[in-house]
Amino acid sequence: MHDSLKLSRLKSDFKSCTRVLSAIGDETRQLILFTLIDAGCDGMRVGEITAQTHLSRPAVSHHLKILKNAGIVEVYKVTTMNYYYLDPSSKLMDLKKLIAGLEDLLIVSQ
Fold first, then answer.
1. Which residues form the HTH arsR-type domain (predicted)?
2. Which of 3, 64, 66, 75 has the fewest CB atoms within 10 Å distance of its CB?
Protein backbone atom coordinates (compact mmCIF):
# COMPACT_ATOMS: atom_id res chain seq x y z
CA MET A 1 0.00 0.00 0.00
CA HIS A 2 1.26 3.47 -0.81
CA ASP A 3 2.70 5.39 2.19
CA SER A 4 0.39 8.39 1.78
CA LEU A 5 -2.63 6.07 1.76
CA LYS A 6 -1.33 4.32 4.91
CA LEU A 7 -0.81 7.66 6.62
CA SER A 8 -4.27 8.80 5.62
CA ARG A 9 -5.85 5.61 7.00
CA LEU A 10 -3.79 5.88 10.17
CA LYS A 11 -4.93 9.46 10.66
CA SER A 12 -8.54 8.39 10.15
CA ASP A 13 -8.16 5.49 12.58
CA PHE A 14 -6.59 7.84 15.12
CA LYS A 15 -9.50 10.29 14.79
CA SER A 16 -12.01 7.48 15.30
CA CYS A 17 -10.21 6.53 18.54
CA THR A 18 -9.99 10.03 20.01
CA ARG A 19 -13.00 9.65 22.29
CA VAL A 20 -11.85 6.23 23.53
CA LEU A 21 -8.29 7.43 24.14
CA SER A 22 -9.57 10.41 26.11
CA ALA A 23 -11.90 8.23 28.16
CA ILE A 24 -9.30 5.62 29.10
CA GLY A 25 -6.58 8.21 29.70
CA ASP A 26 -8.07 9.22 33.03
CA GLU A 27 -6.82 7.25 36.06
CA THR A 28 -10.21 7.30 37.78
CA ARG A 29 -11.88 5.82 34.72
CA GLN A 30 -9.11 3.23 34.51
CA LEU A 31 -9.91 2.24 38.11
CA ILE A 32 -13.58 1.88 37.19
CA LEU A 33 -12.67 -0.19 34.13
CA PHE A 34 -10.51 -2.52 36.24
CA THR A 35 -13.43 -2.92 38.62
CA LEU A 36 -15.81 -3.71 35.77
CA ILE A 37 -13.35 -6.21 34.29
CA ASP A 38 -13.22 -7.99 37.65
CA ALA A 39 -17.04 -8.07 37.70
CA GLY A 40 -17.16 -10.02 34.45
CA CYS A 41 -20.25 -10.30 32.30
CA ASP A 42 -22.74 -9.73 35.12
CA GLY A 43 -21.86 -6.06 35.44
CA MET A 44 -22.09 -3.89 38.50
CA ARG A 45 -24.37 -1.27 39.94
CA VAL A 46 -23.07 2.19 40.76
CA GLY A 47 -23.22 1.45 44.49
CA GLU A 48 -21.07 -1.64 44.06
CA ILE A 49 -18.52 0.28 42.01
CA THR A 50 -18.54 3.03 44.65
CA ALA A 51 -17.84 0.51 47.41
CA GLN A 52 -14.95 -1.11 45.56
CA THR A 53 -13.31 2.06 44.28
CA HIS A 54 -13.97 4.30 47.31
CA LEU A 55 -15.16 7.03 44.94
CA SER A 56 -18.28 9.06 45.55
CA ARG A 57 -21.50 7.99 43.88
CA PRO A 58 -21.68 11.18 41.77
CA ALA A 59 -18.06 10.70 40.66
CA VAL A 60 -18.72 7.10 39.58
CA SER A 61 -21.86 8.15 37.71
CA HIS A 62 -19.98 10.97 35.98
CA HIS A 63 -17.15 8.70 34.84
CA LEU A 64 -19.53 5.93 33.77
CA LYS A 65 -21.35 8.43 31.59
CA ILE A 66 -18.07 9.34 29.87
CA LEU A 67 -17.17 5.67 29.38
CA LYS A 68 -20.65 4.95 28.04
CA ASN A 69 -20.53 7.90 25.64
CA ALA A 70 -17.15 6.70 24.41
CA GLY A 71 -18.70 3.33 23.57
CA ILE A 72 -16.67 1.35 26.10
CA VAL A 73 -19.27 0.59 28.75
CA GLU A 74 -22.87 -0.52 28.30
CA VAL A 75 -25.75 -0.79 30.72
CA TYR A 76 -28.63 -3.18 31.12
CA LYS A 77 -31.63 -2.79 33.39
CA VAL A 78 -33.28 -5.25 35.72
CA THR A 79 -36.48 -3.61 36.96
CA THR A 80 -35.19 -0.31 38.39
CA MET A 81 -31.55 -1.39 38.73
CA ASN A 82 -28.85 -0.46 36.20
CA TYR A 83 -25.90 -2.80 35.68
CA TYR A 84 -22.80 -1.43 33.94
CA TYR A 85 -20.41 -3.71 32.12
CA LEU A 86 -17.47 -3.53 29.76
CA ASP A 87 -18.79 -4.07 26.25
CA PRO A 88 -16.69 -6.81 24.59
CA SER A 89 -17.47 -5.42 21.14
CA SER A 90 -16.83 -1.86 22.25
CA LYS A 91 -14.91 0.94 20.65
CA LEU A 92 -11.84 -0.44 22.43
CA MET A 93 -11.59 -2.79 19.45
CA ASP A 94 -10.87 0.27 17.29
CA LEU A 95 -7.64 0.65 19.25
CA LYS A 96 -6.55 -2.74 17.98
CA LYS A 97 -6.93 -1.49 14.41
CA LEU A 98 -5.03 1.71 15.24
CA ILE A 99 -2.14 -0.19 16.82
CA ALA A 100 -1.97 -2.57 13.87
CA GLY A 101 -1.72 0.44 11.56
CA LEU A 102 1.00 2.00 13.70
CA GLU A 103 2.95 -1.25 13.78
CA ASP A 104 2.66 -1.59 10.02
CA LEU A 105 3.91 1.95 9.51
CA LEU A 106 6.79 1.55 11.96
CA ILE A 107 7.92 -1.80 10.54
CA VAL A 108 7.90 -0.46 6.99
CA SER A 109 9.83 2.67 7.96
CA GLN A 110 12.64 0.74 9.66
1. 10-106
2. 3
pTM above 0.90, yes or no: no
- Closest by CA position to 45, among listed 15, 78, 69, 11: 78
Q: Is 64 exposed, middle or buried (0-12, 13-18, 19+ CB in 10 A)?
A: buried
- Residues whose CB is less than 8 angstroms from the CB of residue 67 and which lie 6 or more positions away in sequence, other chains included: 23, 29, 32, 33, 73
The listed CATH number (2.40.128.50, 1.10.10.10, 3.30.360.10, 3.40.640.10) that belongs to domain 3-109:
1.10.10.10
